[in-house]
Amino acid sequence: MKRKILTALALTLVLCSCEDYLTRLPQDTVTDTPEFWNNEKNVRSEAIGLYDIYFDGYKAGWARANWFAETDIADWVDDNAQRAATFFTKVAPAKGGGWSFSNLRRINIIIDRVSKNSMEEEAKNHWLGVGRFFRAMEYSKLVSMFGDVPYYDTVLSSTDYDKLYAPRMKRTDVMDKVLEDFKFACDNVRAEDGEPGLTVNKDVVLAYMSRAMLFEGTWQKYREKNTTKAAEYLTAAKNAASKIIDGGKYKLHPNYKELTTSLDLAGNKEIIIYRSYVEGEVMHSLMSFQNTEHENSSPSRSLIESYLSSNGLPIYQAENKLCKEKKMWFEDELADRDPRLGQIIYTDDLYLEGVKAPYAVSGYFANRFVNEDIKTLPAGVSSTNTTDAPVMKLNEVMMNYVEAAAELQELGQYTLTQNDIDVTINAIRDRESTHMPHLTLSGREFSVNGTIINDPERDKDVPSLIWEIRRERRTELVYEGIRFNDLRRWSKLNYADMKLNEKLNRGAYLDKDKYIKWYNEKHPDSPITMEHLKSVTLKDGYIMPIQEEAKMRTFSEKDYLYPIPEDQITLYQQNNKELNQNPGW
Prior knowledge:
Helices cover 36% and strands 6% of the residues.
C-alpha cells in the first residue's frame, strides 16, 4: 500500500528582500517556544516542510518538473530538438530569478532552535545534522546559480543591517562551509529514520553530497581552473559515493524503465529517496506530457546518436560493423542499439506531424515516463498521474563516483582501477533490461571486447575516457533534469547552442517517398500521401524543426551564471552597500 509524507505547515519566519523581520506566529499552528522545539515530533514536521522544495520529484498537478521538457532546466540542453527554441535569459530580471534567502532563513531557524533545545544528545545532533544538510543543499543551489553569494548561518533580526546587506562571499569559501555542513550531517544524521525511502537519513546526505561536490569539483576544474579546490571537492564526492556503494544496502533494479514508471517505488532497492503520489491526495502530470500531448520538444539527433551500438562501440566508429552508414532508415538506425534507447522512445515508427497524433517534432517520440499499462486510465492522463518519482537513485551515485575518480586521475590525485569501472558502469550495464558489454580499462582509455573505443564524433578537447563516462551518464540519467548542470560544470554550454551544434536542431533521417510506401503497406486502410508530410521540413535529409536562424538558441559566456535581480542591487544601494552584478549582465 502506498504511503506519503504530508507536507507540514512551516514556520512563518521569512527573510524578505534582505529586510529580515520576525512575524508573529499563528497560535493555531505552531508556537516558537522551547517546549515546541524540545518535541522531536514537532522538529520532524518542520523538516518535512522542506521536502517539497528539495525533493519535488515530478511536482504536483499541472506544474512542470525539470524532467524531460518544457522548463528552462530541461530545455537548455542538447537532448531535445524543439519546435520553438527555449532561449537563455536575455536580461537580468527586475525581481525574483531565484535570488532568495527565505528557504535559508527557515533552515537557520530550525538549526538555531534545535541547538538550544533539551533533547538527548543523539536526537539533537541528528536534527542539527538534518538542518545542516538542508543548508548545504540550499547553498549548493545558490552557488551553482549565482557563484559568489552572501553567507548567512544565523537568524538575523530587522536591525542587523550590516549582516543583512552582507557582501557576496567567494564561492570557494561558501562551498567550504557547505562541505562542513555535509560532513557534520554525515557524522550525525541517523542511518535509519522514519519511513524508508521517504525521509532523510545518512544515505540521502551522502548521495546529495556526492552530487553537490561533483558539481563544484568539476566547476573548479573547468570553469575556475582551480585544481587544488577541484581535487578537494572531487575527493569529497568520490568518498561520499563510495560509502553508499560499499555499504551494499542498495541494489540496481533489474528493469530500467520501471524506475520512472512505477506506481509504487516502496521497497525498490535502487531508490535512496523518492516522492510518493497517491490518488486524490498528491498527483502529477509528467506522464501525460509524454502520453497525450504533441512533443514540441522531442529527442534530438544529438541524443539519439549518443547511444552506443549493442556491441558497445560508438555508432560511427570505423570498427563498428553494426552501423551501415550515417543516413539510415529509422528501423536500421534503431536496431542493434543500447537497449536503453528503446526504453526512452517508441521504436515502432516515426511519429510525424500530419501522420501521427500526437506527433514529435524530431520524429522520435519520447516515452521514458509512460507506463503502458495505465496510459489510458486516470492514473496516466490529465493531472492525475500517480507514478512515483525516483528523486535520488543508486545509479546516479555510481556515476558520480566513477566520474569523480576519473577526474581525480586527470588531476594526478588518484589512479582509476578496473574495479572502479566494474562496480559502477559495468554494474549498470549488467542490469537485466540493459545487458551491454563491459568496459575494460586499457591505460587511460576504454576498450570493449578487445577494441579500443575512439568515437570519431568526440569533442576533441575531452579525453576519450572522460567522454565515455559522460556518455554513460547521459544515457543512464537522461531526462532527469541533470544535463543542464552537467553542461555548465563541464564548461560545455556550447552543446546547447543550436547554431554551433547542428545535431540539436535535427531529428530522424527521412526519405519521404520510402516512408509513404512503407507506411501504406502497414496501414492499407488509412494510406497517406506527400500532402500529409508537408509540415515536415528536411535539411540534408534530416528533419529540421526550426528553419529560421533567428529562432535558434545561442549561448554566451554570461549564461554560465544567473543574473542577480535588479531590485536586490538597488536595495543594497539604498542602504549604502554594494551588490555587484554577475559578468556580462
